[in-house]
Specification:
alpha/beta, Mannitol-specific EII, Chain A, four-stranded mixed β-sheet, 33% helix
Length: 117
């Protein structure tokens, strides 16, 4: 499969940039949300996820019951906003600590489950 990238957008991205992918979805069998914030030890290129060939360093995955679609969507938008903020992003690059845990617990309004791969 040949992937077509947005070349116009690619020209605007500085060298060495890394992506954060926020994935939100509904799952019929869930009664409570399930989410994970993942920091990859090595930034990895995922051809089918990003619009441009920029390696991914962070992923936030949120799966929730169908009735919570709007709430889950807004949580995803909040995480995306946090990841676009320089201070929050710098915090995510350091070792996971209590402040990072508090940041994502506050954003999701539930205790965070942090995973490092």
């Amino acid at each position: 499969m040949i992937v077509q990238y947005n070349q116009h957008f690619l020209k605007k991205i500085p060298a060495g940039a890394e992506a954060s992918n926020i994935l939100v979805g509904d799952v019929d069998c869930l009664t409570t949300p399930l989410y994970a914030f993942i920091r990859l030890q090595k930034a990895t290129l995922f051809d089918d996820i990003t619009e441009v060939p920029v390696p991914t360093r962070f992923m936030f995955i949120l799966l929730g019951p169908p009735g919570d679609h709007q709430k889950n969507h807004e949580i995803g938008r909040s995480i995306a906003t946090l990841m676009s903020d320089e201070v929050s992003c710098d915090l995510c690059h350091c070792d996971f600590n209590a402040k990072l845990y508090q940041l994502f617990t506050y954003a999701a309004d539930q205790p965070a489950k942090l995973i490092v791969w």
